[in-house]
Every structure is written in C-alpha cells, then in structure tokens.
Specification:
NADH Oxidase; 5-stranded antiparallel sheet; 7 strands; 19% strand; Nitroreductase-like; oxidoreductase activity; NADP; FMN
Length: 188
C-alpha cells in the first residue's frame, strides 16, 4: 500500500475481532512508528498492552470510575477489541524540548502506528473517555506520578464489510494564511 492510499483509506474501526498483532508484531510496528518526529529522541511514552482477561480487569476499573447507571456498559468497553494498547505520556525533563512538544511527538507516534497497523491489515481506533484520570484505572494500569494516560488504541482485525473508500478530501484553503491574508483573499 502506498502512503497516500494508507492515509486516505485508514478509518477508525468500531468493530474489531481476532486476530490482533502478537507482542512481537506490535513491537516491530512500534519500532517503525518510532521514526516519527521526536525532538531530542526522548521517547516520552510507554505502552501497557492488555489482552484476554486483562481487558476485563480494565473494564472493572472503568466501571468503578463511572456513574452507577453506566457501570455495566463501561465494564464491557475494553472487550470491543482483542488488544488494547494503553498510551502513556511520560514527559522527560529537558531544557530544550518543552512538554507540549513531547506530547506532540507522542501523538505523532500514535498516528504513525495507526497507519502502520492499517498497512498491515489490522484496524484500530484511539479511544479516550472518563476513565483517563480515574485513580482506579491508573492503579489497574500502574500509571506513575507525572505520567498521563492519553487513551487506548483498540486493535484487531476490522469487520470485513467496513468501508474502504478513500476519505473525502476537504478543502483546506481557509486554514492557510500567507502574510496575514488567506490564500483565497490574496488570490482575489
């Protein structure tokens, strides 16, 4: 698959089933994704992988973090994919690379990983939600002081009837300025 095709056809996949990449495959893809921009090569991230019963443990922690009427639904959420890759931002002390830049590097890595997963036939979706700051969830994932849970990549095999049509390409002219004027108004 060419890069342009991968970018235009990758979708957040709601329905994911087995198989998912095994630990060796995930590590290989993550190593490749690590070529994403990362000023200072700080690697301000770590991953917590959850499979099988580990997903149910996270579900119980999410249920504990939720409102009473949503607990049953929250407990089932981690079971929607065979692999959950918890994205943990680990900012490094560095005088040249500010925290925001390290966070941007982490997001770039995650997006590269999603493209690589898609290129290899797997689907993914980056999920967030109320549990990101829950002490019960942090305990379950062993989030350390100073770290920030950014969400989970739900990873697996996409539903066979998913859309593979390229995403519509949006007009971006109104998002570009040149010397204080938009391209459209400067062309007029």
């Amino acid at each position: 698959m060419e890069l342009t095709e991968a970018v235009l056809t990758r979708r957040s996949q709601q329905q994911l089933t087995d198989p998912a990449p095994d630990d060796e495959q995930f590590t290989r893809l993550l190593r490749t994704a690590s070529a994403a921009p990362d000023h200072g090569r700080l690697r301000p991230w770590r991953w917590v992988l959850l499979r099988g019963g580990q997903r149910a443990r996270l579900g119980r922690a999410l249920a504990a973090a939720g409102a009473d009427d949503a607990q049953a639904r929250a407990a089932l959420k981690p079971l929607r994919a065979p692999l959950l890759a918890s994205i943990v931002f680990v900012p490094r002390q560095n005088t040249k690379v500010p925290r925001w830049e390290q966070l941007a590097a982490t997001a770039a890595l995650v997006h590269c990983l999603e493209l690589l997963l898609h290129d290899h036939g797997w689907g993914s979706i980056w999920r967030t939600g109320h549990g990101l700051e829950s002490p019960a969830v942090h305990d379950a994932l062993r989030i350390r002081p100073g770290e920030q849970l950014l969400g989970w990549l739900y990873i697996g095999t996409p539903h066979p009837h998913r859309s593979t049509a390229p995403k519509p390409v949006r007009d971006v002219h109104d998002t570009i300025t040149r010397l204080g004027a938009s391209i459209e108004s400067s062309a007029a």
